[in-house]
Amino acid sequence: MAGWAITKHKIYLASASQTRVHLLRSAGLVFDAKAAPIDEEAIKQAGLAENVPPDDIAITLAELKAQKLASQKEGYIIGCDQLLSCEGAIFSKPRSEQEAAQHLEKLSGKTHRLHNAVVVFQAGRRIWHHCSHADLTMRKLTAQDIADYLAFCGSDCLSSPGCYQIEAGGAQLFSEIKGVYYDILGLPLLPLLQLLRAHGLMAIDGEAGK
Amino acid sequence: MAGWAITKHKIYLASASQTRVHLLRSAGLVFDAKAAPIDEEAIKQAGLAENVPPDDIAITLAELKAQKLASQKEGYIIGCDQLLSCEGAIFSKPRSEQEAAQHLEKLSGKTHRLHNAVVVFQAGRRIWHHCSHADLTMRKLTAQDIADYLAFCGSDCLSSPGCYQIEAGGAQLFSEIKGVYYDILGLPLLPLLQLLRAHGLMAIDGEAGK
User: Among residues B32, B81, B148, B183, which one is catalytic?
Assistant: First the structure.
């Protein structure tokens, strides 16, 4: 059995994020992935300057990615975004190990929130959106803890705003995690599959749904 | 950096479960794994016959595994167990796809609980134990849904009592998941690492901690 698809409609993910592509493929969804690059940093900064709540910034980013791909492709287009907020600040992916160390210093001993937005476009318009949260508390980290952690993770720490993968070395950072696995990875998967089921998602054999 | 260990003491996992070994290694713990086979089914049935709560059965099973290995090895010995309970019944791993289909029929449309126990032995005695829960709600599954799911998962459905891996096709089964990723995989990792840290767990280079 090849997986799950919507008969006569292709499904696209407007992202090339390896984490999201892997999660959706593992879950059995039959889809194509295509990056829809937008100037995320400019939109984040503009949103912050206008005091737009992080949830709304994440939804806007997810929507713009889906919209961009919807102008090129027909079918169901999934756009998603994840933001990390802590004490009013929004964190972007670190660009160097030095910047990662600064992120971890700021997150140490505090609870931060992951805002996870997913938007679906069909026939050129948004038909659904959803936003969910995960709250993660880092233990109090010493400078040595941070240096040890970064030495263990290497460049993997650059792949997320919080500098961690909970399924890897990230486990060393936390005292408490409240949130569903899928949300921490950046994709509210259960509500998305429920929406797609309501639109006819069904099991397919071979390449039938592609 | 090789990972985290307790200087001058080896750490052992009293289990050969690939999921738990992979989770702990990915988190950077330096340890050896060795299966400590006990007659789990007999202990479960005896506990159920005496109306022992699932948490206590899980702790007993984790303890017996750790104790068995502690009679052979020195150092810190980790034992763990996971039970699935639903409406008063305890589920064991299915032995065939047919049995998996029966499990899924029983779990369909209901919330089940995963009971996750971890026990640590040192110098031949139990020094710590912890039990945590995850609650997962399966959507109402038709016979066709179950057949499709089992066709997709193949023999992977035999590797857990609930017949799923949430990081794979299992995502197709659920309407809601409440619980931490580590608990769903069967190891309360954050409390365990906290206990080991209190006993001197620290970052090590090379093979120093082995």
Answer: B81
